[in-house]
Amino acid sequence: MGKKIVVAGHLCVDITPVFPEGKSGQLSEYLTPGKLIHMNPATVHTGGVVANTGLALKKLGAEVRLIGKVGQDAFGEVVRGIMRKYDADQDILVDGRTSTSYTIVIAPPGVDRIFLHDPGANDSFYADDIPDSVFSDAALFHFGYPPLMRQMYLDDGTELLRLLKRIREKGIAVSLDLAAVDAESDAAKTDWKRLLKRILP
To answer: Rounded mean pLDDT of 73-100?
Structure first.
């Protein structure tokens, strides 16, 4: 058995209402208060680095451990059910004190997508949520997306620094995946230049 990859961090459910073919126009034509719009069935997928990068690596044949956190709710069941299909649900943590992260993806034809995102359980993800046992025979640790995980950017990224330092001390290569954030969010008010200067070495 070769060296394995550990992918951890942001995990959510993506719900995308599908607009009927042939519809196009300005966003204001769709999102008008009081208007009922006929839609096609929504698509439901897992999202976040754990599902996007982790499952892609698994499908390509890599030995991967996937670690994320969901709430004890209906969305959490959806996420775990999808991960279970790929035999990738063993390290998905369930936190009964919070909700599962979700994103509503609004993608009208001809208009750039809008993401309505609730970070949910990702905001309560800590370094200690990842047990040392998952790093046995690991060659690479891939972590994302700290800008969407509150504990990871508070206090100039102290929790993220603790996590990445712990992994590097095991001699495991580390890669970090970032994400764009809402300009009004707490993450956007964080001094990321200073945080990353502190974290990346």
So the answer is: 95
